[in-house]
Design a protein that fits this description.
Layout: E1 6-7, H1 19-27, E2 31-32, H2 36-46, E3 58-67, E4 74-79, E5 84-86, E6 89-91, H3 98-110, E7 116-119, E8 123-129, E9 137-147, E10 160-166, H4 168-171, H5 178-195
Parallel strand pairs: 2-8, 3-9
Antiparallel strand pairs: 1-7, 3-6, 4-5, 4-10, 7-9, 8-9
Helix pairs in contact: 1-2
């Protein structure tokens, strides 16, 4: 059965420190790496600080798969620290509402006004990061579809060195990881379902 995608209401995006909210969102992720859900739920069970960036062996993050208003192009940013093409996203910093985290990060990193986040999440990915001046650790990344308005104006911040809107066909020629490709496939299908 296909999930029912819908735009989140404003009151569903309030900040929370309730780990039960994060657990619930993780449990509704549509796609993901094998065992990502059980590993992330175990992290939440074993670490009261799983929403804080200092938690090791890893912590939760929220990402936004941003599409244009037609749902046919997605936005990729060239991340300054990691030197990779990625979707907008970042640390939860104690906020258990990862849909809200994804929307906040998308706005901060793209400058686009009027973004709307969709629930349930489209993907859950666990990946290793090794940023400069930090120890290597895991990001348990819950990913949400975010739709830009028709008049979207892009204004990236210091976290990115470049940005590009790409179609599914153009994404094939860009150096991104398997998790990003899986997220794009699920996200574009979700956008087609929601925006048709």
């Amino acid at each position: 059965m296909k999930p029912h995608y819908r735009f989140a209401e404003a009151d569903e995006l309030n900040e929370s420190d309730d780990l039960a909210l994060a657990r619930g969102q993780v449990g509704t992720a549509v796609d993901g790496k094998v065992d990502a859900e059980s590993e992330t739920l175990a992290l939440l069970a074993d670490h009261d600080d799983a929403l804080v960036r200092t938690c090791r062996p890893g912590h939760l993050t929220g990402s936004a798969f941003v599409v244009d208003s037609t749902g046919t192009r997605t936005l990729l940013l060239f991340h300054t620290k990691l030197q990779m093409w990625l979707q907008p996203g970042g640390h939860a910093d104690g906020d258990a509402n990862l849909a809200g985290v994804a929307l906040r990060e998308a706005h901060e990193e793209t400058g686009i006004e009027g973004l709307r986040v969709v629930v349930p999440p489209i993907d859950l990915d666990i990946h290793r990061v090794d940023p400069p001046k930090e120890d290597a650790h895991n990001h348990h990344d819950l990913r949400f579809l975010v739709v830009a308005p028709a008049d979207a104006t892009l204004a990236t911040n210091h976290e990115s060195q470049g940005a590009q809107w790409v179609t599914a066909e153009e994404l094939v020629d860009i150096d991104v990881d398997d998790g990003t490709r899986r997220m794009a496939q699920t996200g574009l299908a979700a956008a087609a379902q929601l925006l048709s």
